[in-house]
Amino acid sequence: MNRLIKHLLFITLLTTILSGCNTTRGFGEDLKHLGGSIERAANK
Known about the structure:
Blueprint: H1 2-43
């Protein structure tokens, strides 16, 4: 039983970390897009 709990905890932690990486990447892409929009607006 103790081993099962450790495995479930590990899987939950791994899933959280992997989904967090995807979210961070998406935030970085949004920030890059925002910077490009600001740059284009400044050049007008």
